[in-house]
Amino acid sequence: MRHAEVINHMTLEEKVALGSGQDNWRTKAIERLGIPSLFMADGPHGLRKQETGGDHLGLMASVNATCFPTSSALASSFNPELLREVGEALGKEARAIGVNLILGPGVNMKRNPLCGRNFEYYSEDPFLAGRLAAAWIQGVQAQGVGVSLKHFACNNQEKGRMGSDSLVDERALREYYLAAFEHAVKEARPAALMSAYNKLNGVPCSDNRRLLWEILREEWGFEGAVISDWGGTNDRAAGIRAGLDLEMPGSNGRFDGEVLEAIRAGQLDEEALDRMVSRLLDLIARCHHEEAAAAPEGLFERHHLLARRAAARCGVLLKNEGGLLPLTADKPFAVIGELARTPRYQGTGSSQVSPTRVDNLLDGLRGHGLAPRFAAGYLLEDKADEGLLEEAAALAAGGGMVILCLGLTESYESEGYDRGTLALPQNQTRLLEALREVNSDIAVVLAGGSAVEMPWIHQVRAVLHMQLSGQAGGPAAADLLLGASNPAGRLAETYPLRYEDVISSAHYGRQPEQVPYYESMYAGYRYFDSAGVEVLFPFGHGLSYTRFEYSDLKLEHLGGYDYFVHFTVKNTGERDGAEAAQLYIAPRTGGAYRPRQELKGFASVYLRAGESRELSLPLDARSFATYSIKDKAWQVEGGAYEIRVGASSRDIRLVTELALEGVPAVKSDCDPWYYSLKGTPGRKEFESNYGPYPEYAAKRKGQFDLDSSLKDMARSSLVCKLLYRVMEKQIARVTGGKVDYGNPQFKMMMDSAGGGPIKTLALFIPEQMPIRRVRLIVDLANGRMLRGLVRYVRDR
Fold first, then answer.
1. Can you point out the beta strands (E) in 345-496?
2. The domain boundary residue, chosen from 664, 694, 725
3. What number of helices (H) and strands (E) belong to the chain?
4. CA dihedral 343, 348, 351, 353 (to 10 degrees)
5. Number of alpha carbons in the 13 Å side-chain half-sphere of residue 450
6. Are residues 263 and 339 in the same domain?
């Protein structure tokens, strides 16, 4: 065991203490043994360092840092080199402000577009997400700063996230939900990995031995530390046995005491504790650096320029009817929409950055020497304002085209709760309809961290989707509108025509306590393309101001299942630009059920007008394999496979076929739905694939426990109902002064504190709500006042 000499000098109490946080952001130091503390910060798209106190939901002030485009936007670049460059910048800022470990990136799959945290995740595709995450991690860690890959695993919704149970069949787990984690772990060696809040197949992720030990360490060879999500420790002694190393933010000594009791009772082997300590000492040795020095001169100015370049590289031109864009100097235009002046450039929650500066679209246009006419048109709050609407309509009628800024405002998507709809705010769509009556030349600049419905798409001639583009998104949008940059972003998720077309829509969020993944691996384009469902915009879609031609598809066999796929891309237009070429494998073996096609390679290539280049993308056994539940191994079925190259999942330009030898292709023993995809799967279909499972039964008075929420208990307990009202008022004091579920920060905190397991209150506010008080509340909710009071007095 590494660090054996240091561990031999540690007391049992010191070993246990090292595995829980000192406060919200720091690990414990043991000065007598020279063990320093590590400082952590949120940071998938920018650092959120809180130097004093702190919270895990982005409410309190943090140190100014560069706010880059969110992961959902960066993924649209299809460009690992850009992700590595952004990672390097984040690592440099972390060194400059004294952060040892960045909590990110998030590679959870976008199972459903209503997930409130989708802006923080890369893609609906694990191949793309895994490669981009690996590049980002390598960029950060090259600066001597560690990262914590998250949230492991199947954390695919915010509603009920701290107590939900994700039921996922083994093939979907291996082939879809774990694949991005697997690649990032093997390729980039992250210093740490964060367990998820939820349960996976009945077992909390924080003490899931199969997940944290058998798969992560034994199969994938992970050597880093496993950290709990903030307040996400279920049973720390069980967690240590399973492979959990660090409880954050610490439980005010509660779990330390339980671990000591478990060791003394022989329920936890001290050797397991020693292995935990050894991994934490590895983490400290790998990530610790001296106190923060002054930031290098011009660091944040350079990073602001990088943020602008990244945002421009990620903007997706969804529609451009008649070449309306780019704008020309001789064509007048007006800018309409409050989001042009007050941009939404990042998500709400733990990833919320205090930016070094924010430049909006009007700033960006002025930077190009333009002075556009402007009207707000609507309020950021979804309320009608006839005066603003009439002013905007008058401006639009005055001549010239309209740049209309629309998008999801802050209350629409956030950590802590899921979206209620895929629609834009009604006051925005009403404005669009009014403008369309007086002007037919409308180009929409869209903001938002996930898919939106666009029933209005036929009313506009162009749509430039900037997503959540960071602090320099305004100038980046101006660069794209004016043609100073050529749009090169491609959608990293499918945009459905309507939410009901999403296969998980019939069940998503209906019963957050138990979440069967009825659809198996059929999420995103894996469902839409396999089922032949029409979509608004397919995965990988994006337009350019130039054109690209594909040709000369060739396969080079290297032996076994290893191939190179060679093809040529040519810029046949009159502008320089970048193309994101995509390689899909389409099995035609007739064996195990699987998507019609899956992304297995991509390349972003910049070509000058008239330039061509041969690209070569590798394939290996995993490119063709499925996971065999019987043999617990990856296997390639023998038979035919199409090799498909194109500009999106539905814009395939080149196709060839490949015959492979392998295991016999045998149909899966499951319900026919997984082959036909006709209709909507339910419990019967799922159990044919997953096996039987007990149906969740909501707890009633007399059955409540520490995993019950205050919100649930308030339905049958007057005491809990009063406590819930007190909680609302206390949270209102720090989020604007009033109980307002339209306030994203208030709603986020109430859904987390009131809707999560009540035991988490003892972790987040241990002084006000120690565990004995939490137990008393549960006893009172169950109608056991006398027993509760006796235990409360006894535990003091």
1. 354-355, 373-375, 401-407, 442-447, 462-467, 495-496
2. 664
3. 26, 28
4. 40
5. 29
6. no
Which tokens in the block code for residue 651? 């814009």
Q: Backbone phi, then psi, for 579, in 5-degree steps?
A: -120, 145
pLDDT tens digits along 221-275 = 999 999 999 999 999 999 999 999 999 998 878 889 999 999 999 999 999 999 9
Q: How far apart are CA 588 and CA 671, in angstroms?
A: 20
Residue that the structure tokens 């032949």 belong to: 532
Residue 577: inside a domain, yes or no? yes
Q: Do the domain assignments include residue 508? A: no
Inside any domain, residue 512: no
The whole domain housing 263 covers 4-157+189-287
Do 363 and 251 fall within a single domain?
no
Q: Are 657 and 643 in contact, with CB atoms under 8 Å apart? A: yes
* Domain-embedded: residue 529: no
Half-sphere exposure of 459 (CA within 13 A, CB side): 17
Cα angle 297-103-748, degrees, rounded to a multiple of 5: 110
* Domain match, 279 and 205 both: yes
**Average pLDDT score over residue span 195-207:** 97
Q: Are residues 94 and 145 in the same domain?
A: yes
Residue pair 689/674 in contact (Cβ under 8 Å)? The answer is yes
Shared domain for 282 and 337, answered yes or no, is no
Residue among 42, 229, 712, 779 flagged as catalytic: 229
From residue 286, alpha-carbon distances to 37, 94, 623 in Å are 12, 15, 33
The amino acid present at 39, given as its one-letter code, is F
pTM: 0.95
Alpha carbon distances (Å) from 306 to 60, 72, 134, 361: 27, 17, 20, 17
Q: How far apart are CA 784 and CA 248, in angstroms?
A: 32
Over residues 301-307, the mean pLDDT reads 98
Calculate helix-pair angle for 744-753, 718-734, nearest 10 degrees. Answer: 140
Neighbour count for residue 186 (Cβ, 10 Å): 14
CA distance 638 to 380: 56
Q: Which two tokens stand for residue 690?
A: 């997953």
- What are the CA-CA distances from residue 327 to residues 189, 359, 362, 438, 443 (Å)? 45, 20, 15, 20, 10
Half-sphere exposure at residue 335, Cβ-oriented, CA atoms within 13 angstroms: 25
* Contact of 171 with 626, CB cutoff 8 Å: yes
Contact 535/597 with Cβ under 8 angstroms? no
Q: What phi and psi, each to the nearest 5 degrees, are found at residue 74?
A: -60, -35
- Do 215 and 277 belong together in one domain? yes
The string of pLDDT tens digits covering residues 149-173 is 999 999 999 998 988 999 999 999 9
Q: What would the pLDDT profile of 33-87 be if each residue is shown by its tens digit? A: 999 999 999 988 999 998 766 655 555 678 999 999 999 999 999 999 999 999 9
Side-chain-facing half-sphere of 120: CA atoms under 13 Å: 30
Q: What distance, in Å, lies between the first and last C-alpha atoms of the chain?
A: 40
Same domain as 136, residue 56: yes
Backbone angles phi, psi at 551, to 5 degrees: -160, 175
pLDDT at 60: 62
Looking at the structure, tell me whether residues 272 and 317 fall in a common domain: no
pLDDT at 329 exceeding the cut of 80: no
- Angstrom distance (rounded) from CA 252 to CA 423: 43
pLDDT at 788: 83
Give the pLDDT confidence score for residue 57 in this predicted structure: 58
Q: Cβ(184)–Cβ(140) under 8 Å?
A: no
Q: Is 704 helix (H, G, I), strand (E, B) or coil?
A: coil
Burial of 211-226, coded b for 16+ CB within 10 Å and e otherwise, reads bbbebbbeebebebbb
Residue owning tokens 């690649």: 183
Annotation marks residue 441 as catalytic: no
Instruction: Look at the chain and report how many structural domains it folds into.
Output: 4
Report how far residue 778's alpha carbon sits from residue 403's, in angstroms, rounded to the nearest whole number: 55
Cis peptide before 153 (omega within 30 of 0): yes
In contact, 236 and 259? CB cutoff 8 Å: yes
